[in-house]
Design the sequence.
């Protein structure tokens, strides 16, 4: 590709206009080609003033309370440099801490549906953890090993005659059914794709056996965006 | 860049370095200084305050975990770095809604007519320049670029909204972007 089409592709990527094949091409270039990555960065620098000049809007106080609870909960090793905290494998304590954060978040009256799903890219990607939360304070704790993802419902009550079904949501793709589970039981599944930015997970309420068709039929009871930390 | 903007930038850079060292007070300060701006961005993209609150929370958790990755030597200002994270996360969320999972009816059809703000104290010469350069473009191109930036929309959606053929929309936007680049460089 000559430089100019790459520059156009980079600008379209930053604007978020790409889909399908063009999007995959841009993402592949971004990872493999430092020149293209620099073009993307230049376009971000050019266009980001659009965001930065958006009128300010003070968030309601509960947002900071939730952030404070979550970050204090995982800053028990606050004397340790953040790099170590974020990158090392994930000791068991990490899960306990994260669950603490999960409960702390749930403890506040949160009307919203979503919690961060964090996935750590580390030299030893042995275990990763995510959380999906629902309106009622219950949720799903998601742990990931190299090959599997383990989902455990927490404080979840499903209406009788229903199961919960997990879906993977990838940009520009139809929702992909991953598996069905019952309250009180964990679900161990193979993730059909490598975690990458832009993926999210959702849990819907379905009849026994799961959604009859390729898309969810019941309400979404929890959702989380996968954030690579 | 004027003195106030230089100072604000240096202050936020120092603040991020402390956040990277897990300094919780620094995170709180950073939040006080930047959350209204980032919440404005999230709400602009999502047009839904509850969803914007969720994304804002997510953004600061990312910042808390990823502040070590902010590298001032690469010429990116702290506020640009933060705004990029906020925009990307909000667009991800908006796309998740757009896939039909959760209705976000109002957001789907928001026409992007809100002008650039001119009241913020932190607006720099650079920001004003982008605004001026956008004003110099074909109206349809400028509008499409703004819509895309905040909307997470595709060419097809832009073409349908503007009621022009897809190929025309593509060449309008591409020409507009290249003109914008030239304008910003001169």
Sequence:
């Amino acid at each position: 590709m000559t430089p100019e089409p790459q520059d156009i592709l980079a600008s379209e990527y930053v604007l978020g206009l790409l889909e399908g094949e063009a999007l995959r091409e841009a993402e592949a270039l971004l990872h493999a080609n430092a020149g293209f990555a620099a073009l993307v960065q230049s376009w971000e620098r050019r266009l980001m003033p659009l965001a930065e000049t958006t009128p300010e809007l003070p968030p309601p106080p509960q947002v900071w309370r939730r952030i404070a609870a979550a970050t204090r909960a995982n800053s028990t090793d606050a004397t340790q440099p953040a790099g170590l905290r974020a990158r090392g494998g994930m000791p068991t304590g990490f899960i306990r801490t994260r669950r603490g954060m999960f409960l702390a978040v749930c403890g506040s009256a949160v009307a919203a549906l979503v919690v961060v799903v964090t996935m750590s890219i580390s030299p030893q990607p042995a275990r990763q953890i995510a959380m999906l939360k629902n309106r009622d304070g219950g949720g799903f704790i998601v742990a990931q090993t190299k090959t599997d993802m383990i989902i455990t419902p927490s404080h979840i009550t499903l209406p009788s005659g229903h199961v919960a079904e997990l879906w993977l949501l990838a940009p520009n793709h139809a929702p992909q059914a991953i598996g069905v589970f019952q309250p009180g039981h964990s679900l161990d599944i193979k993730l059909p794709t490598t975690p990458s930015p832009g993926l999210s997970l959702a849990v819907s309420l379905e009849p026994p056996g799961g959604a009859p068709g390729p898309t969810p039929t019941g309400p979404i009871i929890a959702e989380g965006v996968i954030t690579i930390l | 860049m004027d003195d106030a903007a230089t100072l604000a930038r240096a202050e936020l850079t120092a603040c991020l370095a402390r956040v990277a060292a897990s300094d919780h007070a620094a995170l709180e300060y950073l939040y006080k200084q930047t959350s209204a701006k980032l919440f404005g961005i999230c709400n602009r993209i999502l047009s839904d305050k509850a969803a914007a609150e969720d994304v804002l929370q997510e953004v600061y958790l990312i910042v808390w975990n990823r502040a070590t990755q902010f590298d001032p030597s690469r010429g990116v200002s702290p506020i640009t770095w933060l705004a990029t994270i906020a925009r990307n996360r909000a667009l991800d969320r908006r796309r998740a809604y757009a896939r039909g999972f959760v209705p976000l009816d109002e957001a789907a059809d928001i026409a992007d007519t809100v002008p650039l703000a001119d009241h913020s104290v932190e607006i720099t010469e650079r920001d004003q320049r982008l605004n001026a350069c956008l004003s110099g473009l074909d109206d349809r191109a400028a509008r499409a670029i703004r819509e895309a930036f905040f909307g997470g929309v595709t060419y097809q959606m832009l073409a349908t909204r503007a009621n022009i053929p897809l190929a025309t929309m593509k060449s309008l936007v591409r020409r507009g972007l290249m003109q914008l680049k030239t304008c910003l460089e001169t």
